[in-house]
Design a protein that fits this description.
Aminopeptidase, 8 strands, about 25% strand, globular, disordered N terminus
């Protein structure tokens, strides 16, 4: 199981990472990770309890509620692109999230602050349809969301880090994500984390 644990500032565990941020320690040999990458523990030196895990079906109601907040956020950014929220849409996404939990299609991880789910990420391996590109296989991030009150606490960064590690362990060298041009905060975060513009998706209303 992928897990991110946190320790109080000044604790012996934190002193192991004098620069702050993240350091990585392998689980004992024989540990398993259903995502298919090496099981590892990431220690984050913050004064808050943090963990990132794979959800199970008992987490589905909480995950659907979090998805609703995510969808409201994106709909408010661009109500021309996204359809209004509805019971039918929620049922479809509940089925989508259930499949992600049960079958890992796509892969899914959730972030907790203490006992509260505050974020999630979905991702999987993809292949390019074009025959003229060098990047033929890559990791694709579908959704990533963190509760507004929990932003700027590295939840999103560590969700993304866990997905990137999964891809890297599978031998994948590139990760793709799509973000609305209206989502300026997310654009800045992704650029800070090393993502660059390679393609621009453009629309024209006729």
């Amino acid at each position: 199981m992928l897990e991110i644990a946190a320790f109080p500032v000044g604790s012996p565990e934190m002193k192991m990472s004098p620069q702050g941020g993240i350091f990585v320690s392998d689980y004992p040999a024989g540990s398993e990770n259903t995502l298919g990458s090496l099981a590892r523990r990431l220690y984050v030196c913050y004064n808050i309890p943090v963990k990132i895990v794979e959800p199970n079906l008992s987490n589905l109601p909480e995950l659907v509620e979090l998805w609703g907040k995510q969808y409201k956020y994106h709909h408010n950014l661009d109500d021309e692109y996204y359809v209004p929220d509805s019971s039918d849409l929620r049922e479809q996404f509940e089925a989508y999230l259930k499949k992600a939990i049960v079958d890992s299609k796509p892969n899914i991880l959730v972030a907790y602050e203490e006992d509260k789910m505050v974020g999630f990420i979905t991702f999987e391996t993809a292949k390019a349809d074009y025959f003229d590109t060098n990047i033929t296989k890559y990791g694709e991030i579908f959704e990533i969301f963190v509760e507004e009150a929990c932003r700027n606490k590295s939840f999103g960064k560590n969700l993304l880090k866990a997905a990137e590690e999964h891809f890297a362990n599978a031998g994948i060298k590139y990760v793709e994500l799509q973000v609305s041009t209206f989502n300026n905060n997310a654009l800045e975060v992704y650029k800070h984390l090393g993502y660059t513009d390679r393609q621009t998706l453009m629309f024209k209303k006729l």
